[in-house]
Amino acid sequence: MRAITRSSAPRHPRPGAPQRAWWRAVATRDAAFDGSFVFAVRTTGIFCRPSCPARRPAPRNVSFFPSPADALRQGYRPCARCLGRDASLGPAERSLVHRLCRGIEQALESGDAAGSVDPGRPTLQALARQSGLGPFRILRLFRRVLGVSPRQYADAVRLRRFKRSVRQGGNVTEAIYDAGYGSSSRLYERASSELGMTPGDYHRGARGLEIRYALLDSSLGRLLVGATPRGVCAVMLGKPDAQLLRELAHDFPNARLREDSRGIGSWARAVVARLRPGSEGIEIPLDIRGTAFQRRVWEELQRIPSGQTRTYSDIARRIGSPQAVRAVARACASNSISVVVPCHRVVGKHGSLTGYRWGLERKQALLASEQRATS
After folding, report:
1. According to DSSP H, which parts of 257-320 are helical?
2. pLDDT digits 0-9 by tens, 128-139
3. Which residues participate in catalysis according to the annotation?
4. What is the structure's pLDDT at 280?
5. Cβ(113)–Cβ(104) under 8 Å?
6. Could you tell me which residues are beta bridge partners of residue 154?
7. Ramachandran quadrant class, 16 (left: phi over 0; alpha: psi -120 to 50; beta: rest)
8. What residues of the chain score a pLDDT lower than 50?
9. SS3 of 84, please?
10. Which of 177, 199, 191, 196 is nearest to 118 (CA)?
């Protein structure tokens, strides 16, 4: 089952096999899917874990999101009943996180966040003073209850307010300040990772977004490199050209695709060079697009040294979400920038090779080449 890669539109459980599987998990309260996705209910404005004990909603009112941050950005609130249901977490700790969330929202409303140079983005020290707990305890609680840090929660709330204001007809500048951004640069500097485009592009419905691509040979077969003006956004391996183009269109359904081998040739050649052992030092600008959770996973993948591997459980622990092993696996499966964001270095328990989007033979070849170079 492929991971959900976009949350800009509701995902309903009725059409398609994957949605039916997600809905079955919700209908049966399957705790094995906790951490893989959350479901939101339009009639209540709440999002929950699949195992939530609350009464099941009608399927037509349900939307799916890959992470709590995505549901937050669409205007939903976390369920106080099920999120953070961890044997080691008591009701008082869960209640504290939800109370701090309300405080963050109020700070955004007033444009004041104690201890923060950026209104609405609280520091861990400020939250620690409010709660009486240590800063790192607060960070761990937020990640275990919501799957995001306090700053990521504040960012999601601000972005949600910005989107709502724009959809209601406000101009971009007013929407930026009404949402609680201290300056327009605060949103623009985060536009690529949070909006996937500039605020102006979002206001115009993302018309004109263009991805240029090049197709070339590599040691692992045909290779497609896609790029925006900010950097490489896709590296796809080894399939016939037509199939690689279909993969690119699938991952970026709202973009205009244009072949430009000359224009992005230097980046494409740098990607091919990265396939060679000992080439980790080659710098390649990236335009990484995904949810907050996916980006946390992909950033951790880039920290794995060449020639080494990590398990999905290792990655989950390193990003502070030890229960989210399935979600980590889905984030690896949805990685569009292979090799440069090295999801091939993630293996199953006891080092077993698990699924790889571009084929296990290529995964094995990449690992063997890296291990020979570092031995």
Report:
1. 265-274, 292-301, 312-318
2. 888 888 888 888
3. 48, 343
4. 66
5. yes
6. none
7. left
8. 1-17, 85, 87, 111-120, 168-207
9. coil
10. 177
